[in-house]
Design goal:
With 279 residues, the chain is α/β, with parallel strands linked by helices. Strands 1, 4, 5, 6, 7, 8, 9 and 10 form an 8-stranded parallel beta sheet that branches. The protein has a two-stranded parallel sheet with strand order 2-3. The longest helix has 19 residues. It is globular and about 45 Å long. It starts with 8 loop residues before the first strand and ends in an 8-residue tail after the last helix. GO terms for molecular function: hydrolase activity, acting on carbon-nitrogen (but not peptide) bonds.
Length: 279
């Protein structure tokens, strides 16, 4: 079903030809990414930056009639090499959410092995046209399963580190794995962020919750027909909407697992079929 209110917020992770197996399901090739961007440009959608969307969500000026946003999570090195140049070439704005303790060099990598951006490279690209940089936690942990003190530290310290390194305000956050609840969202607001990205595999809208923005996760098997449907405002439902029983049950199960096992292996989380539906 097509919705005129739908705002597709596309979520990418990696853009490369030879991804490590654990991130391969969430990777597109550079050539495929270019074709995706060409479809965005040809769709009639108006690509907007995060600042414009933030202003609209907080009651400011309205959005173009058919808007679209592009986002990336984690901070892989291929963003600077393969993704950003194609975005700049097409004059398409993008927001990159960075897991601060995963950037090189770090003595304790917090994601499975993959080439990550370095702090030096992040500073180099920070002024690229159309690029906004946001926070994605320090260690990519499931915030809604952490003790309250650890959860607040993950959120606040990632912003502080980015602002210190980049010497500019950082006002948007993306929940690792998309996982959040009311307490996590309150902590994000308390830390001074004006928006936060979830996943939910749904369209966003002008009426969406600024601290739980719905995104559509682009996977390796996201074909042109599905992308075109998203850009047409068709397919998934449109936020805002309440969490369903599968999301609530999955959250409860993860909390039980966290208490029993401690922090889960991120490779398992990225491969979990329910993870993309977390609220």
């Amino acid at each position: 079903m097509r919705s005129e209110a739908a705002v597709p917020v596309l979520l990418y992770h990696a853009v490369r030809d030879d991804p490590p197996p654990w991130i391969a399901p969430f990777t597109v090739t550079p050539a495929e990414f270019g074709r995706h961007l060409d479809r965005v440009s040809a769709s009639g959608r108006v690509p907007i930056g995060l600042d414009r969307f933030t202003e609209a969500l907080h009651g400011g000026r309205d959005l173009p009639r058919e808007s679209v946003l592009i986002t990336f999570d984690d901070g892989y090195a291929d963003f600077a090499r393969y993704a950003l140049p194609q975005l700049v070439e097409r004059d398409l704005p993008v927001t990159l959410y960075v897991t601060t303790d995963a950037l090189w060099p770090t003595p304790n990598p917090v994601l499975p092995p993959a080439a990550m951006l370095s702090w030096r490279e992040l500073r180099r690209i920070a002024d690229a046209p159309g690029l906004t940089i946001g926070a994605h936690g320090c260690t990519h942990r499931e915030l809604d399963t952490l003790p309250i003190e650890s959860m607040h530290r993950e959120i606040a310290c990632s912003r502080q580190r980015l602002e210190a390194e980049l010497e500019r305000p950082v006002t948007s956050f993306a929940y690792p794995f998309g996982y959040n609840d009311a307490a996590v969202r309150a902590a994000v607001r308390h830390a001074g962020f004006r928006t936060a990205m979830a996943v939910r595999d749904a369209h966003s809208s002008r009426e969406d919750d600024p601290w739980r923005i719905s995104r559509l996760m682009v996977r390796a098997d996201t074909g042109p027909d599905r992308l075109d449907a998203w850009l047409a405002g068709a397919g998934p439902r449109v936020a805002p909407f309440r969490d369903g029983l599968p999301t609530l049950g999955w959250r409860a199960w993860r909390r039980i697992r966290a208490r029993r096992r401690g922090r889960p292996d991120p490779r398992h989380e990225h491969s979990d079929p329910v993870a993309g539906r977390a609220g």
